Amino acid sequence: MVVKREVVKRNTWQREAVREALELTDGFISAQALHATLHATGSPIGLATVYRALADLAGEGDADSLQSPEGESIYRACSTTGHHHHLICRNCGLTVEIAADAVETWAQSMAAEHGFTQAAHVVDVFGLCPNCSAAASARP
Ligand SMILES: [Zn+2]
Ligand SMILES: [Zn+2]
Ligand SMILES: [Zn+2]
């Protein structure tokens, strides 16, 4: 079982605005691009707040985050709530949400074996999706 850390509820409307904008976005988006989108709709929200809200959402599992090839953090609303894992294509960003029962069992037994409590883990698998794999092998 994963125990969610207590989060101080601050800037609630801003967080909700960021969450909503993220849900309306198709695919991954950077904090800067999301901030620009919010500004275009007349929101006075600041860029630093967008960064923090996205980091919070990602930390609580409400958003997927990964590093773009340029090293920028990019985000996507998670379509699965609760604890889960991801398969992420590092070429096109395609993300598949997966359950990983074997990982849950393994993480729990490892923690217990070493006397750890309140254990949590993040396991995302990066690779090339079927399309990108095919494109890569077609290249000479
Ligand atoms: Zn997810
Ligand atoms: Zn791909
Ligand atoms: Zn897990």
Describe the protein's architecture and organization:
With 140 residues, the chain is an alpha+beta fold. It folds into two domains: 1-79, Orthogonal Bundle (Arc Repressor Mutant, subunit A), CATH 1.10.10; 83-140, Ferric-uptake regulator, C-terminal dimerisarion domain (Dna Ligase, domain 1). It contains five helices and six strands, in the order αβααββββαβα. The strands form two sheets. It has a three-stranded antiparallel beta sheet with strand order 1-3-2. A three-stranded mixed beta sheet has the order 5-4-6, with no helix packed on it. α1 crosses α2, α1 (12-24) packs across α3 (47-59) and α2 packs across α3 (47-59). The radius of gyration is 17 Å and the shape is flat.
Order of helices and strands: HEHHEEEEHEH
Rg result: 17 Å
Uncertain segments are: none
By helix and strand content, what is the structural category? alpha+beta
Q: How many structural domains does the protein architecture include?
A: 2
Helix content: 40-55%
- CATH fold-level topology of the largest domain: Arc Repressor Mutant, subunit A
Q: Main traits of this protein?
A:
140 residues, alpha+beta, Arc Repressor Mutant, subunit A, 3-stranded antiparallel beta sheet, 3-stranded mixed beta sheet, 5 helices, 6 strands, binds zinc ion, zinc, cytoplasm, WH-like_DNA-bd_sf, transcription cis-regulatory region binding
